[in-house]
Amino acid sequence: MATATPQAARPRRARSLSATRPWVAAAFLLPALALLGALVVYPIGYSVHRSFFDASGHGFVGFDNYHEVFSDDRIRTALKNNVIWVVVAPALATALGLIFAVLTERVRWGTAFKLVVFMPMAISMLAAGIVFRLVYEQDPDRGVANAVWVGVHDAFAASAPYPGAHPRPGGDLAADANSAFTARSVLRAGTPALVPLVAVKPQDAEGERDAVPARAEPGKVTGTVWLDFVRGGGGTPGRVDKGEKALPGVTVEAVRDGRTVASATTGPDGTFALPAAADGAHVRLPASNFAERYRGAEWLGPTLVTPSIIGAYIWMWAGFALVLIAAGLAGVPRELLEAARVDGASEWQVFRRVTVPLLAPVLGVVVITLTINVLKIFDLVYIIAPGSSLPDANVLALQLYQSSFGTAVNQGLGSAIAVLLLLLVLPVVIVNIRRMRKEGRR
């Protein structure tokens, strides 16, 4: 005969804390919800509401602010630059981080290298902007980038010996269409030619020998090129006076009917000698003698300012990508890599077909994080770009600040830009949330 199981012996289904005491869960969630509403929900709602009003905040303008967002040239430039930032910066920073992580995985000094690459993350965007504003200075004596660039350029191309020099106005020498200086008088064998110049920079003539009048040589056309200037004043213009400096290394040409018939280079004392073919020709000093020295690239000019700022951003955030990718690489099963090598795969094939696919979740995290970050970029652009190039380097976050708090204060337009920026960030955030949920279900 079956006996009934006592009521006390039956197992009772455990109920969650939220099911038995919902007020406890609400008490814990309320502070977070209040903070979220005050710092996120309310500002977003107020920005959307404010975007439908004019600058004063009293007149309802409907979608006029949004129409201005897409019709204003400054804002369209900012939108275009944001697209460039989103396409270029996360991709390059992630690629550099991936390359650095893979290459330093097996070397003893890999940790030290990662520390050096990650170190820029320890400084603020403001400090990094000040550093790179100096790095991109146009003057090679101050800007590191142009100091290197000019050094490389000058290693392959000789600079002009006397940049900016020219003859006295109203003299025998006159500038032509090619910025060269050609004499009106003709050269005569046996009669030394005098070629005086002025406006030579002191450092270019410092230490040179005193000029001497050229001697007549049979069958040759001779002359002297010198700095027709005496320190402290004095001397006679157009005549080689005592103490006036020679200008060695100047190219002198003899030109007849537009053709160069002879050429020579002045010696240490400033004298030159042309063959007899120069008799009856005109002396010409090519523009290559006086071209301004190469000053490097205009990194912060309208053309290069955005790529230059992106370079500064990559310098800062490549370390972030490196650390995350290196952590993901440490979790890659080594037996899979070794199996691929045993099967005959090259290192490039192992990297492309095994390492990168296994690191895809980590790479996705890095790319999405950097994409959200560059959509809100403000500090670097505001600090690095000079005033003349700031409109060309403009981005949406900077335009939002200028429209809301700049000279023409219009917080209605600024709120419309903020809403646009939110709409651009939302798809990336949604993709990130879906990726996190997918990872959580694994």
TrEMBL record:
CDD domains linked: TM_PBP2
PROSITE patterns in the record: ABC_TM1
Pfam families linked: BPD_transp_1
Transmembrane segments: 23-44, 83-103, 115-136, 312-332, 358-385, 413-433
Keyword presence, Iron: no
Alphabetic keyword roster: Cell membrane, Membrane, Transmembrane, Transmembrane helix, Transport
Source organism, top-level taxon: Bacteria
Subcellular localization(s) per the UniProt record: Cell membrane
Domain ABC transmembrane type-1, chain residue ranges per copy: 79-432
Keyword match Oxidoreductase: no
Record-linked InterPro entries: Ig-like_fold, MetI-like, MetI-like_sf, UgpAE/MalFG_permease
Lipid bilayer topology: Multi-pass membrane protein
PANTHER family documented for this protein: BLL4140 PROTEIN (PTHR43227), DIACETYLCHITOBIOSE UPTAKE SYSTEM PERMEASE PROTEIN DASB (PTHR43227:SF8)
Protein name per the record: Sugar ABC transporter permease
Native source organism of the sequence: Streptomyces luteireticuli
Upper classification of the organism: Bacteria, Bacillati, Actinomycetota, Actinomycetes, Kitasatosporales
